[in-house]
């Protein structure tokens, strides 16, 4: 199918009461507009046009930086005046000179529609039987949706916006316009100028195309989707929270079907772009953002947030926050570990309690068990970092590197003042401040001699 998608994302989103574009608000860590763009791409649309307007730069940056933009033709056009959804589509058609082919129009606030559904739906106009098909659902609460009026023969007659409905229409017309349409591009381009704005909101309503096309003698059908959640739109923060819960359940149910255990599936928020291997256990209060890849047989959480993390098999991440980090296999982390961008932990390593690591490699089987900061460091295999040891990587101007060779033992509370190289099989004495390179196999110790002052306590008491 050679379809174009037009995604409407120029609106003010007034009901969100936000300083940001409505479609920039995130669901499971991913901006709403990206969900829609991804669904359009998954649904077989090979050209995506996003209509931006309110907070245009913010929306454009999200769209252009999305993963979809690297696999499909994704472009933005600007609707400078927000005159309604019909006007937004006209702007897109004119800017991109679209005059034919299937055109799928999607509201930018329709994040839960699935690619496969779009594909089925768009085929309804691809064969030429209809000039337009409108995607409908019957949500439990139809308030706010345009209502689809069906004729006695069951065919669609028109869509009446909530604000234009009589009380009786609002109460009896339960078939809702989800804000997703498939058009024959030629019919759409030919008739788009006929949309007027004689309505409650004085806007150009895209759904008015139903009546216009019918008047022109063209066929219009509805595509009813039984799963009303696919048609849920977001206009308010309450709806944002409701849809987040629906998305979370949908994703967690899929992972459970694939062999992932959730201790409490309502308390784990997993990105739609994450992958999790079988027999991994997800503990409560786990959040995964972005394209996390977690292997098999891992234990993740509780209280863990992973952002763009890749993790092999058999790892345990307990109360861990990790961002742009790579963990190989059989690694244990936490409780209370903070792995910042550029962290690479090799097989069998251990990162313990109150440990922060940045832009560093922790070698195979090495251990950083307690209260350490390791930054800009390349660490070999079998290293042990004593409690409280720190790489002093920042001199106030530059970040400097530290290297630590294989099987080296760093005594507790060692300060490694970078740039510094510590060889392999070396040892540092506890509480040493290491400012010079340490050769292989050497002991480096930097601390003053201990003094013993005998009888001190007794004399102190006597003075009192
Ligand atoms: C719209 C539909 C309604 C449908 C509902 C589904 C119209 C007139 N009504 O109502 O029938 O049931 O969606 O959720 O289409 N936008 C622009 N430019 C504009 C105006 C809006 O790009 O000038 C964009 C918005 O950013 C939004 C989308 O179009 O993503 C829908 O606009 P919104 O104001 O949310 O429409 P609804 O009132 O929800
Ligand atoms: Ca809406």
Description:
The protein is an alpha/beta fold and 464 residues long. The chain folds into 2 domains: 3-231, Spore Coat Polysaccharide Biosynthesis Protein SpsA, Chain A; 251-444, Hexapeptide repeat proteins (UDP N-Acetylglucosamine Acyltransferase, domain 1, 3 Solenoid), CATH 2.160.10.10. The protein is built from 10 helices and 41 strands. The strands form 8 sheets. Strands 1, 4, 5, 6, 7, 8, 9, 10 and 11 form a 9-stranded mixed sheet that branches. It has a 7-stranded parallel sheet with strand order 12-15-18-21-24-27-30, with helices on one face. It is elongated. The mean pLDDT is 97. The site of uridine-diphosphate-N-acetylglucosamine has 29 residues, from β1, α4 and β10.
How are the secondary structure elements laid out?
Blueprint: E1 3-9, E2 26-27, E3 30-31, H1 32-42, E4 45-52, H2 56-64, H3 68-71, E5 73-78, H4 85-95, E6 102-107, H5 115-126, E7 132-137, E8 146-150, E9 156-160, H6 167-172, E10 176-184, H7 185-191, H8 209-215, E11 220-224, H9 237-257, E12 261-262, E13 268-270, E14 275-276, E15 281-282, E16 286-289, E17 293-294, E18 299-300, E19 304-307, E20 310-311, E21 316-317, E22 320-323, E23 326-327, E24 332-333, E25 337-339, E26 344-345, E27 350-353, E28 355-358, E29 361-362, E30 367-370, E31 373-375, E32 377-379, E33 384-385, E34 390-392, E35 402-404, E36 409-410, E37 415-417, E38 420-422, E39 427-428, E40 433-434, E41 443-444, H10 456-463
Parallel strand pairs: 1-4, 1-6, 4-5, 7-11, 12-15, 13-16, 14-17, 15-18, 16-19, 17-20, 18-21, 19-22, 20-23, 21-24, 22-25, 23-26, 24-27, 25-28, 26-29, 27-30, 28-31, 32-35, 33-36, 34-37, 35-38, 36-39, 37-40, 39-41
Antiparallel strand pairs: 2-3, 6-10, 7-10, 8-9, 8-10
Helix pairs in contact: 1-5
């Amino acid at each position: 199918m050679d379809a174009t998608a037009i995604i409407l994302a120029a609106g003010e989103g007034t009901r969100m009461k936000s300083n940001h574009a409505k479609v920039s608000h995130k669901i499971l860590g991913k901006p709403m507009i990206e969900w829609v763009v991804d669904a359009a791409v998954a649904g077989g649309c090979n050209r995506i046009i996003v209509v931006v307007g309110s907070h245009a730069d913010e929306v454009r940056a999200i769209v252009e930086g999305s993963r979809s933009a690297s696999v499909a033709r994704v472009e933005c056009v600007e609707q400078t005046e927000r005159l309604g959804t019909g006007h937004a589509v006209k702007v897109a058609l004119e800017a991109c000179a679209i005059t034919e082919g299937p055109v799928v129009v999607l509201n930018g606030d329709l994040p839960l529609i699935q690619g496969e559904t779009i594909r089925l739906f768009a085929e309804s106009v691809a064969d030429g039987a209809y000039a337009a098909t409108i995607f409908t659902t019957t949500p439990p609460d139809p308030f706010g949706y345009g209502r689809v009026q069906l004729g006695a023969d069951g065919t669609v007659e028109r869509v009446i916006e909530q604000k234009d409905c009589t009380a009786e229409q609002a109460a009896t017309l339960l078939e809702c316009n989800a804000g997703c349409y498939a058009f024959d591009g030629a019919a759409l381009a030919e008739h788009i100028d006929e949309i007027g704005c004689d309505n409650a909101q004085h806007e150009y309503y895209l759904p008015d195309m139903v009546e216009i096309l019918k008047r022109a003698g063209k066929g219009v059908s509805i595509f009813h989707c039984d799963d009303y959640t696919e048609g849920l739109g977001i206009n308010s923060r309450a709806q944002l929270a409701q849809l987040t819960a629906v998305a979370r359940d949908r994703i967690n149910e899929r992972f459970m079907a694939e062999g992932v255990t959730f201790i409490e599936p309502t308390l784990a928020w997993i990105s739609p772009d994450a992958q999790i291997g079988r027999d991994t256990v997800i503990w409560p209060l786990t959040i995964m953002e972005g394209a996390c890849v977690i292997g098999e047989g891992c234990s993740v959480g509780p209280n863990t947030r992973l952002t763009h993390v890749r993790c092999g098999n058999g790892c345990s991440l307990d109360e861990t926050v990790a961002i742009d980090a790579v963990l190989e296999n059989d690694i244990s982390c936490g409780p209370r570990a903070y792995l910042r961008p550029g962290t690479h932990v090799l097989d069998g390593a251990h990162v313990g309690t109150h440990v922060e690591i940045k832009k560093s490699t922790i070698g195979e089987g090495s251990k950083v068990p307690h209260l350490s900061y390791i930054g800009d460091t390349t660490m070999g295999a079998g290293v042990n970092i004593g409690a409280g040891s720190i790489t002093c990587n920042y001199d106030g101007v530059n970040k400097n590197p530290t290297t630590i060779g294989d099987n080296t033992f760093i005594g507790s509370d060692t300060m490694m003042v970078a740039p510094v190289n510590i060889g392999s099989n070396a040892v540092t004495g506890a509480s040493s401040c290491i400012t010079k390179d340490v050769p292989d196999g050497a002991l480096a110790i930097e601390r003053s001699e201990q003094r013993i002052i005998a009888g001190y306590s007794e004399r102190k008491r006597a003075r009192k």
